[in-house]
Amino acid sequence: MPADRGLTGRQPTAVQSALSVLECVASLGAGVTAKEVALALDMPPATAYRLLNLLVGEEYLVRLPDLRGFALGRKVAGLAGAIAPVRVPRAALAVVHALRSQVRAGVHLVVYTATTLRVADVDPDLPLASVELVERHLHASAAGRLLLGAQPEWRDLLPPSRLARLTAATLDRPDGVDAALAAVRTQGWAGQAGEVHEGVACLAVPVRSDGGLLVAGVVVTSARAVVPAEHLAAAQRCVAELVPLLS
Amino acid sequence: MPRSTALRRTSPVAGLHRRRLSFAEVLAQSVSALAPSAAMVTTPGIVLVGSGVATLPAFLAATVLVLLVGWCVSVFARRMAAVGGVYSYTAKGLGPAGALLGGWSLVIGYAAVSMSALTGCALYLAALFGLSGPWIAVLVLLVGGLAGWCTVRGMQLSARVALALEVVSIAVVLVVLTVLVVRADGGPGTAAPVVDGDVRWSGVAIGVVLGVTAFMGFESAGTLGVEAQRPLLAVPRAVLWTPAVAGVLFLAAAAAQVFLLRQAPLEVLMSPVPISALSADIGWISQLLDVGIAASFFACVTGSTNALARVLFSMGREGVLSARLGRTHRRFGTPWTALLVAVPVVLGVPLIALLAGAAPRSVLTGTLTVSAFGYVLAYVLVCLAAPLFLRRIGELTRGPLAGGLLAAGLWTLVLVVAGTGSSWQNGRWLAVVFLAALLPGVLWLAWLRWRRPGRLRDVGVYDEPTVDSVLPGSLAA
C-alpha cells in the first residue's frame, strides 16, 4: 500500500506542518486535544485535524480511548532510536568483556528501543559478519526475534511482505515466524542456525527492565551450524549482571 | 476538564487475528458484500422500467448519495478501528439506544442479504447445470455450508477467495457487455418506448432507491478494524473507493444496457436478467454469465456473513448479547461462535422458504428488499451520528456538519420512498416483514434500558490503543 498518498514530496509545506503537529503533541504532552494542537500551531482546525488523523493512521500518534486526546505512538521510538547515538555504560561493557574471556565464541551486545535494535558492541576478535543484516532482518537473527517477540503484533514492525529469504534455512513464512516467536516467549531466549549466513548460528538472551521492558540483549555467535546452547548458562549469568547496569 | 488517559493492557476486542489483511483484502470485504457484478446485470433493467430516460442520472444520484454515507463512515473509520462497523460508529455519536437500533437494523441487513445472495448463487448454479426444483434447496445447503466453512476457517482465506471471485465475475460481465454491444446492429425494438420513457418524479425516486440498493454492503470494511493492517488508513480508503469504483461500473453497465435494451423486445427488458436473455442465442455467453453471477453471489455470502458475525461479536463483547458470542477461535482468529449462530440462520431461512414452496426468485428479491430497509435505517443513523461524534470529541468543522445533516436528510427521504413506494414488488408487505424483524431488537433494547442499564455501558467497543501502542514512558500509567 503506498504510504504517502495525498502527501507527496512536492508538498514540502504539508510535511513541515505534519512534523510540527508531531512536535506539538510531544511538547504539550499526552492527552492534548486536536483543538489545542490547532490553537497552539495557529493552524486552521480542519488542516490540523486532517494531519492528526494522518499521523494516527501511520501510527506515529495514538488517539487515546476518550477519542479526544492524542499521545506519541510506539513508532516514534523507531525515529528516536535511529537518531540517538548508542551509549552503553562502561561497567556494562566490562561485564560483556568478562564473558568474552570465558567462552570460545563471539559475544556481542545489542540495545533495543520499543521498535528498534542497534548493535552496541561487537566482539573485536570474532566480529559479526554483517551488522546491517542483524539490524534489518529481524525475523532471521536471534537478537531480532527477541525484539519481534516483545511486540504486541510483530507484523506491525515487519510486514510479512518483507520476510526476506537470506539463506535456504531462513524462516520466510508468517506462520513459521509465529511459531518461532511463541518458542522465544516460552523459553525466554532466542536462537537460530544458518538463517542469516550459511553455517553461522547464534543465540540471544534478553536484558529486561523491572517493568519487563526489553532493553538489551547478549548475543553469542558460533561458527558451527548449531545453536551454541552450551554457552546459554554463561550468557544468562552475564545478563543477570547487566540488568542493574542497563535498566 | 478531567481527561481519561488511562490505557488498558489488552484491547477489548482482542482475539481476532491482528493486522493480517492487506489493503486489497480489506477492499475485497467491501466489494464482495456489495456484489457488483450481480448488481451490474440485474439492477439497470429494473431501474429502466421505472426511470426511463432518467436511468443514468438516477444511477449518478445514487452514487452521490452512497458516497455521502461513505464520507460520514470515513469520519469514524479514520478515528477508531471498530469490529462492529457502522454499529460501533453510531454508538460514538448517538449513544447506546441509537446504536442498538442501527446495529440491529444492520444485523437484519447483513443477514437478509446473505440469504438473498445464497439463494442467488444456488439459482445461477442450478441454471448452469440445468437443475431445478428441490436441487436448488440442496445447492443452498451445499453453498451455504462451503461459505460458512470459509468464514470460520479465517478472514484472510475468505477475503482472498472473495477477491479472486470478484475479479473474475466483474471481468466476465464486462466481456459479455462488450461482446453484446459490439455485435448489436438492430433498430429500435418493442422495449424502446420504455427505455426512452418520460421522466416522472415518482419513477426517478424509485430508480434512485433501487440504485442505492445496488451499493449496499460497501461499508462492511468497517468490521475489519482489528484484522486490517493500518486500519485507520485502509478502512476509510476502502469505504470511499468501493462506491466510487462501483458507481463507475454501474454507470458503464447501465449505459450499455440502455443502448442494448432499446433494440430489444419488451419481454427481454422485463426478464430478471435482460443481459442473459439478450445473449440467449450464444450458448457460451449465457453460461459464462451464470458462472460470473454465481461467483459474485458466493463472495457476497461470505462477505456479508463475515460482517454479520463481527457485529454480533461486538455485541457479545459489550455484554449487550450473550458474552458467548464474543469468543474467538484460538487458531483461526475468527468470531466462530457468532458465525455458528449466524450461518444456520442464513442457511435456514431460504431453505425453509424454498421447501415451503416459495419461488427461488421471490426469495432472492424478497430478502434483498428486507435487507435494503435494514441498511438504509443504519445509514440514516450513522450519518446523523457523524457530526454529533465530532462535536463530542471537539473536532466538528462546517463541512462534516453540513455533510452529515444533508446525508441524514436525503437518506431519510430514501427510507420514506422505499417504505411507501408501491411500484416495487411487494414493497409494503416486505416493509412490514422488516419492522417485524426489527421489533425483537427494539424490545431487547427497552428491556436492557429498564432492567439492565449496566449492560449498555460498553456499547461501542473498538480496538482501543493499549499500553503497548504508545511510546513507552510518554504516558503516566
Characterization of the model:
The complex is a heterodimer of chains A (247) and B (477). By secondary structure, chain A is α+β, with helices and mostly antiparallel strands. Chain A has 10 helices and 8 strands. A 5-stranded antiparallel sheet of chain A has the order 5-4-8-7-6, with helices on both faces. A 3-stranded antiparallel sheet of chain A has the order 1-3-2. In chain A, strand 7 and strand 8 form a beta hairpin. The longest helix of chain A has 17 residues, at 12-28. Chain B has 477 residues and is an all-alpha fold. Chain B has a single domain, classed as Up-down Bundle (Amino acid/polyamine transporter I), CATH 1.20.1740.10. Chain B has helices at residues 23-34, 36-51, 55-77, 86-129, 134-153, 155-183, 192-195, 201-213, 231-262, 266-270, 274-278, 283-318, 336-355, 360-392, 398-420, 427-451. In chain B, helix 1 (23-34) crosses helix 6, helix 2 (36-51) packs across helix 9 and helix 5 (134-153) packs across helix 12 (283-318). The two termini of chain B are 19 Å apart. The mean pLDDT of chain B is 91. The chains are: A alpha+beta (247), B mainly alpha (477). Chains A and B meet through helix 3 and strand 3 of A and helix 9 of B.
Largest sheet of chain B: none
Which stretches of chain B are low in confidence, meaning pLDDT under 50 for 5 or more residues running?
none
Pattern of helices and strands of chain A = HEHHEEHHEEHHHHEEEH
Helix content of chain B: over 70%
List keywords for this structure.
heterodimer, A: 247 residues, five-stranded antiparallel sheet, three-stranded antiparallel sheet, 43% helix, B: 477 residues, mainly alpha, Amino acid/polyamine transporter I, 16 helices, 0% strand
Can I get a quick summary?
The complex is a heterodimer of chains A (247) and B (477). Chain A has 247 residues and is α+β, with helices and mostly antiparallel strands. In chain A, 43% of the residues lie in helices and 17% in strands.
